[in-house]
Amino acid sequence: QTAPDPAITELQDWQVYLGDGVDAAPYGMPSKHESHVVRRTVEWLTADNVSSINFTPLHELDGIITPNGVCFERHHGGAAEIDPAEHRLMINGLVDKELVFTMEDLMRFPRENHVYFLECAANTGMEWAGAQLNGCQFTHGMIHNVMYTGIPLKLLLAEAGLKTNAKWILPEGADASAMTRSIPIEKALDDCLVAFKMNGEALRTEQGYPVRLVVPGWEGNMWVKWLRRIEVGDEPWHHREETSKYTDLLEDGTARRFTWEMDAKSVITNPSPQAPLTHGPGYTVLTGVAWSGRGTIPRVDVTLDGGKNWHQARMSGPSLNKSMHRFYFEFEWDGKPLLLQSRAHDSTGYVQPTKNQLREWRGENSIYHNNGIQTWYVNEKGEAENVEIS
Ligand code: MTE
Ligand code: CO
Q1: Residue-wise DSSP of 342-375
Q2: How far is the CA of 140 from the centre of ligand 2 (A)?
Q3: How far is the centre of ligand 2, averaged over its atoms, from the C-alpha of 49 (Å)?
Q4: Per-residue pLDDT reduced to its tens digit, 157-182
Q5: pLDDT < 70 positions in the chain
Q6: Looking at the CA of 55, which ligand is closest?
């Protein structure tokens, strides 16, 4: 005979007193019991928080959509606070007629809706030299997955009329960093969007309100926020963000350049260092996310023993092009230590490599494009830790 459970037998305040009426929160916020679900920064990573990064709490989320309030932020000059009435988007350079659009003008172009992940090229970059940060929020949280509403960029470029020698575009941000990146015209005319809504509501200030460029599958740095200008040219501009930054220095001293596409990658979000197993041995739900800048993720494998045995995980939720995918693997935990890993396969047939394979190919000089397999060690108590196995 066990003692009665007061959560059942005692009257709770919320049963005795009326709750808040409607309109207590004109713009709703999560329950106060969820206040730990927040973006977090790593103090020592950057010298100042206006040119810095915080991380999406992947271990607290489920499904495939990132809620707007916890989408990681990466600013090079702080988040610009722009009055949409004062915002203009200019198209200039190798076009028949240079154009300037107000936000009102943009609202009169046909729109599309697409779900895409945005991953910073530096995501997992702190892990090149070995396991470092304890939590998937910090190792893999420079990513978010959002439904965008926007105008296909090709419609705006067609309005201006591309000259025959138009081969590249240079989007520019209105923020203090005036972020610019060269993008080949083929990509601009393919699936890029000039987006003004995320998950149905206006872009958040942090994500580039009132307009940002969406460059599906390509590194986050190119998704220019607070988009104010698109210059059309016949060759790349070789600006700072594509020379000294966002290039991948190799072992022999040469650098890979224009490595735009984000390769297939996955991570187990639960259990993980910030989300230990607290229920003891028995039935256990493992879950995680996978994505590829080259297509969809038809399959993810999971191992509990550091790669000796692999099991095919169960995919659940929409499988969309260049979007995050959700996987689950349910198992009976015997209470012994675990070495958890996940391995993504994308629709091109590419399989996520190990970290050591990546190091063989590319050395350890670069911080960008680390899509190696992540390992979590789970001890008998269910506590998890970031480790590497050879
Ligand atoms: N655009 C502008 N104008 N300024 C910036 O600092 N940062 C870039 C990109 N676009 C940046 C920008 C980088 S490095 C990344 S990873 C993404 O925006 C981050 O987008 P997010 O803040 O919505 O997560
Ligand atoms: Co970035």
Answers
A1: EEEE-TTS-BPPPHHHHHHHH-SS--S---PPPE
A2: 13
A3: 14
A4: 999 999 999 999 999 999 999 999 99
A5: none
A6: 1
Which residues are registered as beta bridge partners of 202? 197
pLDDT (tens digit per residue) in 112-133: 999 999 999 999 999 999 999 9
Six-digit token pair at 100?
């300037």
Cα 220 to averaged position of ligand 2 atoms, centre (Å): 5
Between the alpha carbon of residue 62 and those of residues 67, 180, 310, the distances in Å are 10, 33, 23
CB 377 within 8 A of CB 277: no
Contacts of 15 (CB under 8 A, 6+ apart): none
H/E element, 325: strand 325-333
Q: Where do the domains of the chain lie, and which CATH numbers do they carry?
A: 74-256 (3.90.420.10), 265-387 (2.60.40.650)
Question: Residue 114: which of 7, 217, 15 has the closest Cα?
Answer: 217
The residues near 14 (Cβ < 8 Å, ≥ 6 apart) are none
